Amino acid sequence: MAYLTMENITRFxxxxxxxxxxxxDFELRRNEIHALVGENGAGKTTLMKxxxxxxxxxxxxxxxxxxxxxxxxxxxxxxxxxxxxxxxFRLIPDFTAxxxxxxxxxxxxxxxxxxxxxxxxxxxxxxxxxxxxxxPSAVVKNMTVGEKQQxxxxxxxxxxxxxxILDEPTSVLTGRQIESLFYTLKKLTRAGKxxxxxxxxxxxxxSIADRVSVMRQGKVKGTxxxxxxDKKELSQLIFGRDVQFFAxxxxxxxxxxxxxxxxxxxxxxxxxxDIKPLLDSICLSVSPGEIVGVTGAAGNGLRELEDxxxxxxxxxxxxxxxxxxxxxxxxxxxxxxKGFAYVPADRxxxxxxxxxxxxxxxxxxNHDGFSRFGILNRRRINSFVSKKLRQxxxxxxxxxxxxxxxxxxxxxxVLARELSIETDFIIFSEPxxxxxxxxxxxxxxxIRTHRDKGKGVLLFSSNLDEILGLADTVFVLFHGxxxxxxxxxxxxxxxxxxxxMLGLEIDE
Amino acid sequence: MNRREKENxxxxxxxxLLVLGASLLFAAVLIFLLSSEPLPAVKYFFTxxxxxxxxxxxxxxxxxxxxxxxxxxxxxxxASLFNLGGEGQIYMGALxxxxxxxxxxxxxxxxxxxxxLAAGSLAAGLLAALSGYLKVxxxxxxxxxxxxxxxxxxxxVNFFITGYFKDPSxxxxxxxxxxxxxxxxxxxxxxxxxxxxxxxxGGAVIIYFLLYRTRWGYEMTMCGLNPEFARxxxxxxxxxxxxxxxLSGLMHGLGGGFAVLGTxxxxxxxxxxxxxxxxxxxxxxxxxxxxxxIPAALFFAYLNAxxxxxxxxTDVTFEVAAVVEAFVFFFITSEVIFSFIxxxxxxxx
Amino acid sequence: MNxxxxxxxxVFLAVLLAAVTTVLFLNGCSxxxxxxxxxxxxxxxxxxxxxVAGSPLYEQMVAGVKQAAADKSNITVKVLEAGFNQGExxxxxxxxxxxxKYELIVSENGAxxxxxxxxxxxxxxxxxxxxxxxxxxxxxxxxxxYNQVEEGYLVGYLGGLITKSSMKGANTDLKIGIIAGQExxxxxxxxxxxxxxxxxxxxxxxxxxxxxxxxWYDANKARELAKSMIDSGVDVILTICGGANQGVITAAKExxxxxxxxxxxxxxxxxxxxxxxxxxxQKEAVHKLVLEAYSGTLSWGTNxxxxxxxxxxxxxxxxxxxxxxxxxxxQSRMREKVQAxxxxxxxxxxxxxxxx
Lengths: 508, 349, 356
Hints:
The structure holds three protein chains of three kinds.
Chain A: E1 2-13, E2 18-29, E3 33-37, H1 44-51, E4 59-64, E5 67-69, H2 74-79, E6 82-85, H3 97-102, E7 108-109, E8 113-114, H4 116-130, H5 145-158, E9 163-167, H6 175-190, E10 194-199, H7 202-208, E11 211-216, E12 219-225, H8 231-239, E13 263-270, E14 279-286, E15 291-296, H9 302-309, E16 317-322, E17 325-326, H10 332-338, E18 341-343, H11 358-362, E19 371-372, E20 375-376, H12 378-391, H13 407-419, E21 425-429, H14 437-452, E22 456-460, H15 464-470, E23 473-478, E24 481-487, H16 494-501
Parallel strand pairs in A: 3-10, 3-11, 6-9, 9-10, 15-22, 15-23, 18-21, 21-22
Antiparallel strand pairs in A: 1-2, 1-4, 4-5, 7-8, 11-12, 13-14, 13-16, 16-17, 19-20, 23-24
Chain B: H1 2-34, H2 38-47, H3 53-78, H4 86-103, H5 109-138, H6 142-164, H7 196-213, H8 215-225, H9 227-232, H10 239-264, H11 275-285, H12 293-313, H13 318-348
Helix pairs in contact in B: 1-2, 1-13, 2-12, 3-7, 3-10, 3-11, 3-12, 4-5, 4-6, 4-10, 4-11, 5-6, 5-10, 7-8, 11-12, 11-13, 12-13
Chain C: H1 3-30, E1 42-48, H2 56-71, E2 75-81, H3 89-98, E3 104-108, H4 112-122, E4 127-131, E5 141-146, H5 148-163, E6 175-180, H6 185-202, E7 207-212, H7 219-231, E8 234-240, H8 245-255, E9 258-263, E10 274-280, H9 282-295, E11 302-306, E12 313-315, H10 320-325, H11 328-343
Parallel strand pairs in C: 1-2, 1-3, 3-4, 4-5, 5-11, 6-7, 6-8, 8-9, 9-10
Antiparallel strand pairs in C: 10-12
Helix pairs in contact in C: 2-9, 3-4, 5-6, 5-11, 7-8
């Protein structure tokens, strides 16, 4: 019996003439996990924004338990028991977990004053009931991504939401965290909740979803029960064509990278205050033609190391070398002058300026010829920009602000810029976050091309498939230290890397 | 996309026009309520500035300092810096220009005038740069520091005008007149309009070029839009704090300097007051576009000239005129600020 | 934001502006001018350098002109308040003259003739009447200067008499004070010297403490200043600081000493504390001069100085509160002084500075 039905939903974006949803029918049953899959821009997020009241459909109706409802705002959605966890969390960093969870629906004492103890108690009971592992009094800004996500989910549970929408919940999680998330989701459905899972990871869909709806180009292409479709069929439904999956491991398995080093870290440490060091004596080097993969569970120093190698963060100890030159604590400006290319994990805030135009985003790294005597050469800039738009098939007006572009196009803009740098060293961090498989595959190809041209690549990734598929050498971080340096010689398995990630095994 | 973009601009253009129109309408209503001869008062309010060369020239002249301050504010805004110290900076620039002119009476007119302008704008620039420096050095909020510094400087300049440099033979609270060789040629006698307006227009073009056609302006804009991205892209972000403030102060100083050489020929206590705040409103209407600053400044000058004309010809009193001006000012700034906030909020979602 | 679009818009506006400017340039001279044709009205504009409300002297000036208009039905009056930004006065005065509508512009304040000089040059037909002001003779102007040496002398003499008297607020220090809002030529050249001279005439041992507040509104600061003077032994203070006068009065009241008031009769503000007032009969002066200008008997290019003898400077000695506060012995000495000024047996000339 359908519990929630969306009927004939149509949404047209006048702004950019995109028909995001076209006569979409969608149906959610009680106690099910319903996966919504599709490429970037297929209309999944728009459909869910309509359900959550963030956007209004041009046509169509929504029924809850058989009667029509009108959802004009997230407030209405909450009233109907619909909650949503966005891809980018919406928590207040300086509040505790409990404060974030009860925010807006505080238990009151004597009318006005927040009853902190009662709040924490309520949060703790939710936590116990569903097996969450979050300290209600912990401050959000100190939490890992996984913990923040738990807080978001608990927030919905605290509000007694019946329908939970999760937008790409696993994209920021490590394997272990994904497992525990899925365990939680199962438990929630048994407790009577219905869950919509937006994702484009087919493995997840097949392992957890009771049913899956596939969207393509604004339409629902079909809804299937578990077992009705396999991975290959599903991907054909999504992309309308066959997609090559990871074609084997790194090519250079077993190859020894001796001698020349492009980039090297020696005993790099970061301490702040008296707490345990964020990074502790990291030694790592990248040779020509080598992809060095760095992985680790969230909160173990991956982001800090990314900041160090890109020059955004100063060291407390240790040295950084580039072609043998000591460049420790050089400014980013100097790093860029050396020719570093860097695709950051945070592509929305660090990697691009959403209010600036597409053109302005592409020329931030000053190539020769963009300006002479400080005066911009508009002809050269325009030809560079149009060349990049063509080369990376970016769909957007170069003079309009970047935020008007779709997520995928923004990602491509960052790539286009960084890959345009003539360099022998490039840093990729989480290169496929937010990309669909086809775009992801394109990035993988680019990374391999760099390696094959004899350049050095430093790859930060929490996706083990990605690490094993690309890296020649794998470094696993645990508690800010290198727990293991593993050669990806063909025998390396996810399980083995996992044991290092969890600190079950540590090489000295 | 292209059509949408065009629509966007048309909408924002008409939007601004609509607000300006609504604020004028509001002024008319206010005059109707407060004047016993409303019809002529409203008539003079709207047509007064165009009735004679004299009024028209004065209106254009009143726009000159507003163009300079509007440019200064726009420049800082582009770097996401709020320069609230315009009042002090323009006053300082005016005083220093006057004092240098008084100190060099035997100088060549052109060279002396330029020296005085340079000194005045440099002084104002350094005053503003101090706020930028404090921000870089100790992370002092530049909005507050520029405001406080400017407030203190206004008192300092008052002290010099009414004390140390006061013309003892005059009952005005002012310095003596500067030598007439430094006066800028007048254009529409007997109005106060002088060649300073050409400098203002030229200044707008230069600032436009600086912001949109140079590496420097590009990097500054990027620092203003998203400092983390600018830093990531290799821009030396901290250098785009002090410099924009300095240039912003420089423009204010030029505004004060030209007011002395072109219009007042001396420094009078409080004579630049309001020009700094006016610059903020002008920059808001112009959406920080240096070329847009010109019509925006003219609009404000028109408003001011209109209320003066209404005052001159009818029973509209000084207070009524001031209230009308204040309301229109409030109207415009609040609309622009609200739409700015709305845009910000939308982009966050 | 697309730059091209914006600049197109700006260019459009610039062209429009240029067109309007050109039209005005061309039409400005040849266009029809509002000349004083054969209309029979006599139009008077009152230029108020500030605002009328709260200023007794400006109120008197306006009342004087309006009374003239009441006498002669074809006199019209326009009052323009120019506000406190002195920088704008010249432009606003020029605007009035540019109307070419007013036979006479009346104003008050020592700075105004100088502000008016370039205006007079630009509009050689325009006539100006300035009271409480003086300038080297200008053929378009008539100025009336009050002998403020006499004004200062009268209150100085009264202050001297009080401080050496046995009145209950007076002490034995023989010190009197004067607080000015700001310094201006009339203050330093006439009022203060007159005040000192008057005090010394009462007793040569008297010391005068002269202070400048720095503005015309800060009553708190004025109170502090007055307090410190009182603490140093001053028992009579002449206050000339506009809105800040109230601070001086409060301080004097608290300490039981005396205040002298300038330019208007204000005993009622603080009975028992305000011991004396000198006033100007500006309303009468303006009334008479406007009528003279109207009838064509005013001789332009004249600087006239008037004082007690002419009846334009008065000591307010008939007020009941004055008679109650000050003993009869002092009252009679004051009467003698006023009489001496009236009959010319005491002459207090205005300094050379004013006669340029």
